[in-house]
Specification:
By secondary structure, this protein is of the alpha+beta class. It has 5 helices and 14 strands. Helix 2 packs across helix 4. The model has no long low-confidence stretch (mean pLDDT about 90).
Length: about 300
C-alpha cells in the first residue's frame, strides 16, 4: 500500500461485479457525471468513476471540496439497490464510512508498527453520520444520492413495446485527502489532515482505491443480508464521541459562507447519548429534551 504508484492513466480498476471503471484526468465533479450518465442509461450498476482532480467538487450541503491534482482520491461508485429497501438506502453511507475507516485504521496501525506513523495525531475513527476523522480532523467525506438508472426498452412485439422502469441506485461520491500538502488547503483557513500525515509516508492511491472498492462491495453484500444492526455494533466500538458533548446543526440553506448562521440554521447543544439500532442518533439536549436525529451535522 506504500509502494510507488503508477501514472494515473495506467491504473487498473473496476467497479462492483467487474463493472467498468472510467478514469478522467480532470472533471468538474464525479458525482455530477455519474448522475447524468445514470439518468441517460449510459452506465450499468456498479460503475466506478474516478478523477485525478475536480474543478467543482462538492461535499454535503453543496460545500466546496478542495481537489488538488495528482494527490488525492475523488470517485463515485454506483451502488445497486436490489434486495435493499429504499427506506434503508441512507444507511449505506454509514456502512461505507465504517468500512473505509477500518481500511484506514489498518494503514495507520501498519505505519505505527514500522515506526513511521504520527502517533500524536490520534486514531482514525468515525463520527456520525458518516464522517471519517483522525483525532478531530476530517480527511474523508462521503456524499450519497438516490438516482435512477434508465434501462433499455424491450423491443416491440406485434406492435407493442414495453418500457422497463428505471432502476434505483445510490451514487456515492467519496473524497479522501491522501497525499496532499497543507498548502493545498491554505485558502480554507483551517487545519486539514491527510493519510500521509497519519501514516508518515505516501500512500499508493491506486492500491488504496482497489482495497476500498473491494471492501465496500463485500460490506454491501453483508448489509443486504443482515441489515444495519451489526454495523451499529461495530460503529460503537470505533466511535470515540458517544457520551461527549456536541452540537446538532440543521441547515437547509447551507453554503460555504452560511454554515453556522443565517436563515435556515437550527442549532442544539447537548450530549451524544447513543446510536440507535437503525443508525439514528440519540441526542440529549441542554433544554431537557431528547431527540432522535436522522439527518444533521454533528459538531464536536
Amino acid at each position: 500500500m506504500f509502494s510507488r504508484e503508477r501514472n494515473f492513466n495506467e491504473w487498473h480498476l473496476c467497479g462492483f461485479g467487474d463493472a467498468p471503471a472510467f478514469l478522467f484526468a480532470s472533471l468538474e465533479s464525479t458525482h455530477s457525471l455519474m448522475k447524468a450518465r445514470a439518468s441517460a442509461g449510459e452506465i450499468v450498476p456498479g460503475t466506478l468513476i474516478v478523477a485525478d482532480t475536480q474543478t467543482a467538487g462538492r461535499g454535503r450541503h453543496e460545500r466546496t471540496w478542495a481537489s488538488p491534482a495528482g494527490k488525492n482520491l475523488y470517485f463515485n461508485i454506483l451502488i445497486p439497490l436490489e434486495g435493499i429497501p429504499l427506506a434503508s438506502a441512507p444507511q449505506i453511507t454509514q456502512v461505507a464510512s465504517l468500512t473505509f475507516a477500518e481500511v484506514f485504521r489498518d494503514l495507520q496501525e501498519s505505519s505505527n508498527a514500522q515506526g513511521l506513523g504520527n502517533t500524536a495525531i490520534g486514531k482514525v475513527t468515525v463520527k456520525w453520520p458518516n464522517d471519517i476523522l483522525c483525532g478531530k480532523s476530517k480527511f474523508c467525506g462521503i456524499l450519497a444520492e438516490l438516482v435512477y438508472i434508465k434501462r433499455t426498452v424491450i423491443p416491440a412485439k406485434a406492435g407493442i413495446s414495453t418500457n422497463i422502469p428505471p432502476a434505483p441506485a445510490i451514487s456515492m461520491g467519496v473524497g479522501i485527502n491522501v497525499n496532499s500538502d497543507p498548502a493545498d488547503y491554505a485558502h480554507l483557513g483551517r487545519a486539514v489532515t491527510t493519510l500521509r500525515d497519519i501514516c508518515g509516508q505516501s500512500v499508493n492511491r491506486e492500491k488504496l482505491l482497489q482495497s476500498l472498492i473491494a471492501s465496500l462491495e463485500r460490506a454491501i453484500g453483508q448489509f443486504r443480508a443482515f441489515g444495519i444492526r451489526p454495523w451499529v455494533a461495530a460503529w460503537k466500538k470505533m466511535d470515540q464521541f458517544i457520551g461527549a458533548r456536541g452540537t446538532i446543526v440543521v441547515n437547509n440553506r447551507c453554503t460555504d459562507d452560511n454554515r453556522d448562521g443565517g436563515n435556515g440554521v437550527q442549532k442544539k447543544a447537548g450530549r451524544i447519548a447513543d446510536m440507535r439500532d437503525d443508525g439514528s442518533l440519540l441526542f440529549e439536549c441542554d433544554d431537557g429534551t431528547t431527540e432522535t436525529v436522522y439527518s444533521a451535522d454533528l459538531e464536536i
